[in-house]
Here is the input.
Amino acid sequence: MKTPFQIGSRASGRALLVVLFVLSVILSAVAQIPKADAREKALTPAAAAKLRKAVSELQQPVESRNLSDTFSQLKVPPADVAEPKPPVSAVASAAVFPVTTTSSASPELGRLLTQAQRTKSLSEEASAWQAVEKEALRVNDRKLVAQAGLAQARAYEMAATVIGTAASSDHRQAAIGKYEEVLNTGVLPQPTLIRNNLAVLYLQQNDAAAARKVMSELDWGKVDPGSAYLCRYNFGRSEELSGDTSAALVQYRLAVKERATFRPPAEGAFRVLRRKQDFSGMASLANDLVAAGQARFVAEQLQSVAGEAVSPAAEIEIMTALAQAYAATGAAPAEFLEKTRPRLNEVAAKRSELRPLITELEAAYESSDDVAVLDTWLVEKKYPAWSQSEPQREALSMVLKSIGDFYQRSDGSAPTESRRALNAYSSAWSLDHSNTDAALYTAALLQGNKETLDPSGGILNALIERIFSVKVAGYQIPVKTTKDLVNLMRLHLVLAEIYEKDHHWGSEYEATSTIFQLAHAIAIEDQLRNLDPDFLPAPNLPNRLARAFVEKGDADKAYPFFLNSAQGFLAYGQRDRAQEAFASALSLTTAPSLSQKYGDKEALLKRELGTFHNAVK
Amino acid sequence: MKTSLAVLVLCVCAVSRLWAQSAAPLYVSFSFAKTSAPNSFSDVTKTEVEAQIAKKITELLQERFRVWSVVPSTKEDDSPRLAVWLTEGSDWELRLQLQGPGKMPYRNAHWQTVLLKPGDLARLAGTLKWAGWVKLVQESTSELLFEKCDAIQDAFLAYVPIGQDIKLDDPPAIGEPQVFTVLPLDWDVYGSQLLGISEFTIQCLSLSGPVKLHSVGIGRGEMFTPRNPHGYNGVVVRLTEWEDSSAVKTPVLEHKEQLAQLRPLGIYLRAINPVDLRVAP
Here is the structure.
């Protein structure tokens, strides 16, 4: 006997149909949820409460809340609006013009309001709101008067900007009139929207002074942080068109800071700086924008001003910023030579003193596949114009590093590409020893391509000799930032791997050895943890160093590193690895004094790894 | 039998209606590719980790590029697709590539960033669990999306349609003599805050070859579509220019009669203009 829900039964088929039907109804309902049809229903108590809340929010003076959210909450009709007959599609602009009334004195007002909200024709929209305004004025609903005024302003504005008719100027003038009226009443709590759009309309009507005035009275403390970049730009533009380029620049820079991806203020700032012949300011702006990921845009801007500066020093500053932008774009050498070279040659034709800088930049992108150069003197000889000052050296070093990245990325296995990458990386480091990335990638490339690039190990030895002063075990690399420190640690790890493969264990004092490299990596890791407690230790490093000491036959030195490693793996929840390291420590025959020195640590590990430890015993 | 079929059709209709209101999807896939990442982790397989990462990347993309509907890819032939994978050389790199049908890469639509520098993996050996990989890729993707935001958006604008099912023969009656149409994008989701007055290109096929219709949003929504309603308001655009296969642009008004004969292929966003606050000229 089948139960009603057994598969194949008639009843179960019906049940399935019912479930499917309910599902379809739910899906349909979900599809309808955000629709403006809700506006066409009478006001429920819940909706009325929502409306009251929204209205009270609107009455708050602070604009920092999202206006759009508030608007969407207001898309509810007043209670006295008659149920509409045919389901007319809602005029979506009502979402931007949230207008409602609490007045029950005029049923006519409700009718007009609904009519205005549903007006389909753009040309009729403003007059529909005008009718609302008139009736609201009659019943003395001041707020509705202002709202209807704002709606008219937006309708005229929309007609002027979007529909683009010959009467645009008239529409704009009408929008200005309504915005001004609404602003003067002070009833509506959206001065940012009103002031901003009013300023834009003034500018469109070539009245920069009025735009400047209306924006200068904006209360920035009440501007929605998400819109500040736009208002700053508009303010800057009104300052610029009013002739105050310094004030414009301040606003443009603030707008760029708020949103670097928004081009108009960045373009405005470059335009103003160019007019002021402030090339240092331009270089500084370029640096900020490159740091914000706008390198390609910056390169275009600087290319267009290169060769225009009055002083040679300013030209060099621009060329240096340009090189940094090129490096950040990571452009392929072929792309640079094909597209950028002709433009730079035009600059060189204009300003002959820039010719050496441009020629050397081209030489860098032409990418030699000669033997790697690790001699600073030789690299300086190749790039004399770029070796004149530290900023120039740093900039070209960044370009060379980006070229190395390109060849390393394109095909590491092709010998020519690897050689080009090595040449670029090594030149980058030789030119600027603080470019720790270049040193790291030189070493990594040699590690991965020893047979093809450096079979005798001569280049690697030269690199190590130049990086580490062997006698004092100090660094030749100037460490400027935490990033440099991390890179230095990576460099030690790359080199350690080379010597580990060769089973060259060495000592703490021999730079070309596993122990030296690992010990220094661990020391830097400790330094990094002191600077940043969140920097996690790597238990694999002490484990490797301990093994190197074991291979060298120095159990006493291996013992504490095995213990450290076991502790580290435990912290990561890697019990197997912890047990392995602890077992290695216990298997060593060490001096009795060590047991005393590390007794506490050993006891702790014994407790943590108790069962295992007993089994080992 | 008939009843069940009817209900099924009803369900399909409801689902398709929901679907149509969203922008056309951009698929995302992730792969460890030929790297030395472990084949399995203690409690999950590599494929599961790849799916997890694809989901995280999808979320990051959706957050940054709200206009497109970004979804994890489930089929090999999903397109357009943002393929994300790792490469291993001196360092480990995260690569992104926008691909069309048949996984053909689009021109100038690839980006990369370093995931692990030389020495990093050696340092992390034995401690990098699957969640660590997810976090690593997630952080690197987030940085890359920030740095290359404009370039990626430009590629999306050029290659990723935001819709397809447009009806050029069913325009809203808004304001003669201009020509309007309603895009299948829910006004409440896309119009009022995002794309209301943005610019679009509708790629079409005519008897004489491909045609691009340039258009601009007019800041309002209308029923999609007026004569054959689908139950939601779409974004209304004014058609401005007709661009033929020789890239010659003429006012759409000169081609009003031909519009109904066009076969729309895809709607592409050309420029995003802010809706509420205007920008100075």
Observations:
- Chain B has a mean pLDDT of 86.
- The first strand of chain B starts at residue 25 and ends at 31.
